[in-house]
Amino acid sequence: MPVFKGKLLVIDDEDFVRDSVVGYLEDSLYEVLEADNGETGLSMFREHKPELVLCDLRMPRMDGLQVLKTVMEESPETPFIVVSGAGVMTDVVEALRLGASDYLVKPLADMAVLEHSVRRNLERLRLLNENRAYRHELEDTNRRLQETLDLLEMDLQAGRKIQQMMLPEQQLKLGGFNYCHHIIPSHYMSGDFVDYFELAQDKTLFYIADVSGHGVSSAIVSMQIRDFISRIPDNSDQLTGVQEPTPSQILKGLNKHLLNIGLERHATLFMGIICEDTNRMQYCCAAHFPTPIVFTEKDGEALPTDGMPVGMFQEIELTDRSMSLDSLSGIFLCSDGVLEILEDADLAQKEAGLLDLIVKGNNTIDKLFAALELNIVQEVPDDITLLTINREA
User: Fold this and answer.
1) Which domains does the chain have, with CATH numbers?
2) pLDDT tens digit at each of 393 positions of the chain
């Protein structure tokens, strides 16, 4: 059974011409329908939906222009080839204006020209249909993508809410100090985290953490850090191997925990434990930068920088230090995202500028927001976290 190249409709009132055209096109493996007048041709067009129409312009009762106009109204993409005598070119011009895709002049001496026109118009129709199908597929893909993005955005918003719920109260009084924090994420979820809570009856633990990378994966690690450290009061033996762990022992236990879960993210932290009875702070820095600033009413200094990040190496070196809080007014901690928005030329100048801000009295969240102009920042290149610890007046 032959495979036809396409379904055609030939409309011509001259039997000889119509038979010649139909016979030639059938020999060329086209499925050909034929009609001897315009009315019959329109009826067959509506019933059989041919891919192309070849129509004589000059016919009685309904001429080719009327057939063309009706076909274009009902199926404007159907190729329509008009056949005209050499002396009626004004009709050809009108046919082209109405939407005809090509025209041939009688007599059709060379049938190869006819076949070429048919083949070219069918190919154009095929490309048009392919483009339409591709456009519909693209629109469908874009619609599904947008739906996926909308779902992802909803998931990210839910994740952000969960992360925010895991943060401590934004302002909290613990052991004679007022703790206050603010986090500005560069993405939906932040890799920065802070926490502060009562470790024992006379001790308060606080820390700031900055996880490598950005986005969801970093936020997951930050929540793992929070989960591990929050279990220290009730599970210190299991998590660190000692009953009353120091900051360095807690951070070493956290290091093993992050390596075991294998999320391939590391973090820098600063952790302090304030003891009310002794009025001292024991602290440890795990490569956190910039290091905290401790300040009095008139002066301030950055604490020593040392230690190694957690979650990167099996064995890490960390040092516990201790300092008196007798003359201390407060402590300021931040993530390195703060340095990104400072305009100084190098890190040393940025650190010096930050210290100068604190010494000049910008040691609360509200004052720091104003001094750093964070209230007018639209987008930040990195997560920004601020933590202030001020002695209660």
Assistant:
1) 7-133 (3.40.50.2300), 167-391 (3.60.40.10)
2) 566 789 999 999 999 899 999 999 999 999 999 999 999 999 999 999 999 999 999 888 899 999 999 999 999 999 999 998 766 678 888 899 999 999 998 888 889 999 999 999 999 999 999 998 999 888 888 888 887 777 767 766 766 677 778 889 999 999 899 999 998 877 666 778 999 999 988 999 999 999 887 777 788 888 899 999 999 999 988 888 888 999 999 999 999 999 998 888 899 999 999 999 999 999 999 999 888 999 998 899 999 878 999 999 999 999 999 999 998 999 999 998 888 888 776 888 888 888 888 888 888 888 888 888 887 766 767 788 999 999 987
Which bin fits 224, alpha (ψ -120 to 50), beta or left (φ > 0)?
Answer: alpha
**Plot region of 191 (φ>0 → left; ψ -120 to 50 → alpha; else → beta):** alpha
Torsion of CA 133, 136, 141, 146, to 10 degrees: 170
Structure tokens at 69: 């106009």
Q: In this structure, what token pair is assigned to residue 270? A: 């600063």
